[in-house]
Amino acid sequence: MNKRLGGVLLALQIASIPALAQVGHEVYNTPTIEATNRNTNSSVADFSDYFRVNALATYTNIGSIYWLNTNTAGTFITNGTYTTGTAATDYFGNGTARQAMEINGSSAPIFNNLVFQNGAMNIANSAGITVNRTLTLTNGITTTQRNSPLANSVRINTTNAGAITGDFSDTRHVDGYVSRVMSANTTYDFPVGNGGDYRPVTYRPTAAADFVSVAYIQGTPPQGVNSLGTDLMAVSTVGSWPVSAAVAGAVSVSIPDVSGFATAQNLRLVGWNGTQWVSLGQTASGTTEGSTLSGTIPAGTTITALGIGSVSQALPVTLGRFDAKFEGTSVLLSWDTYTEINNDYFEVMRSTNLQDWLPLGRVKGQGTTQTKQSYQFIDEKPLGGISYYQLRQVDFDKTRHTSPIRSVKNPYVQEQIGQINIYPNPANNRVLVKIPQISKDVTVQLFNASWQNTKVPAVLKDTHYELNVSQVTPGLYFLQITAGEGSQSVHKLIIQH
């Protein structure tokens, strides 16, 4: 190690001890201390607690150093100046232990190559960090402050598009701001998210840009969702992307499931221009989790946030998660909503053929709310084989909307009915229902289009059931055949006289 005091360079060598290996290290006052050992294996900073560069002090790393290399948590503090040489690489963590670490202090450390290979990394430093060459994230979630987009951010001070690398996901991204300098007509990635929700952005500017900052926040945008341009009908409350110093160019975002908000054809990438949300484009790969929504920020327009918009009226309920699974011998249905407008209730529907749906029950809605709501419904008598479930959302004015469909296979009850023949269909005076195995446990019921039981008796013959429908009003009906306690089949029937 070399230590410079008052212009005199002193050579300090301790051959038997790895460079700076100790519990805690303080750098005081004005001298510059240079870590000159370029041997990665011996340039190890095993600080089990902290490393601190105090005010007025300067530390320069020109080699490769493993900071906080132990299996315990630690803090890297810069209140003075921390810089690196053009060949230096700073490693945080030993790549094995997933310990939480923190970068703190009042000034920004400047790294050349930086590798986070620990667990969660909290950049609590109010000045953020700067990386001049490459940032490699093999750790958990890296969190920054959000008070100032540029000052608090992870700043990538190179136009190299591949300067940020990592296997990014819901468990590995930057929860906060990423700032990048960009060259014209080059595509750059911003691996941002919020908590355990990874929502990356890609940006291809038409002109060079100096530190564009991007983040993602879940929930209703801070700008609200009511100030809309003339071509928009709604803006989603699932999340938005704050952008600082945006420039003209093509932008693409990864969206959550918005199938309950709008169709892919009606989706729009929207931007906040300071007074209202305006449409930036309409290219959507879909509406499900991880689909992309793309658009263009035009030249001469100041955009400070990106969002998800629609050119059609927003659905009264923005549905989030909708799951169906077996628990014990019952089927548990659970779902979330992000917003509700005049939502009276949910009607839980079940089908065996994706065509004929039977209502199982209702769950009261929350009317109008902008906060997340969670619901459950239990099907205590699931059918045999595969069943399909769907939510029918009903407004106070009786307007209805349906959810995506979920399927569940009953692992306990096997289908018993087999192939069923119903004829004639359409029917005039009578209907014959032929079942492979006639049994006293089989019931045949006729329901009208509103799922009211017509009470028409099904008379058991030698080889079939027979229903006299001569007095039934013509129209659409449903025949429900149930065998035992579990197996059930529903079929459409047209009656005409």
From TrEMBL:
All residue ranges annotated as the Secretion system C-terminal sorting domain in the record: 422-495
Record flagged with keyword Signal: yes
One Pfam family named in its UniProt record: Por_Secre_tail
Domain of life, source organism: Bacteria
Keywords in alphabetical order: Signal
Residue runs in coiled coils: none
Signal peptide: 1-21
InterPro entries: Secre_tail
Protein name: Secretion system C-terminal sorting domain-containing protein
Upper taxonomic lineage: Bacteria, Pseudomonadati, Bacteroidota, Cytophagia, Cytophagales
